[in-house]
Amino acid sequence: MAMRPAVRNKSIMLIVFSVVQWLFMRYILANNLFSLDTNERILYFCVSSIAGAFVIFVAIIYMVLKGNPDKYKN
Predict the structure, then answer these.
(1) 28-67 burial by CB neighbour count: b if 16+ within 10 A, else e?
(2) Of 33, 32, 25, which Cα lies nearest the Cα of 52?
(3) How many Å apart are CA 58 and CA 17, to the nearest integer?
(4) How far is 42 from 40, CA to CA, in rounded Å?
(5) What is the pLDDT of residues 53-62, one digit of tens each?
(6) Crossing angle for the helix pair 38-66 and 5-30, to the nearest 10 degrees
(7) Which of 4, 20, 25, 32 is surrounded by the most beta carbons within 10 Å?
């Protein structure tokens, strides 16, 4: 699939950012760096995972919609 490099680079950057932030939050929670209780750790893990998944889906949808706009011009 032919895609504009700028769109592909932005999408890959968003996907990498979301994976890195998830890993960073996972490291913080695994080592208990903020001394959170169990409920707070579960909450932060869930919010971080949902936010990371949302950013990945947005990046994929952006890549699909903006990747090759010349294909559907009339």
Answers:
(1) bbeeeeeeeeeeeeeebbeebeeebeebbeebeeebeeeb
(2) 25
(3) 12
(4) 5
(5) 999 999 999 9
(6) 170
(7) 25
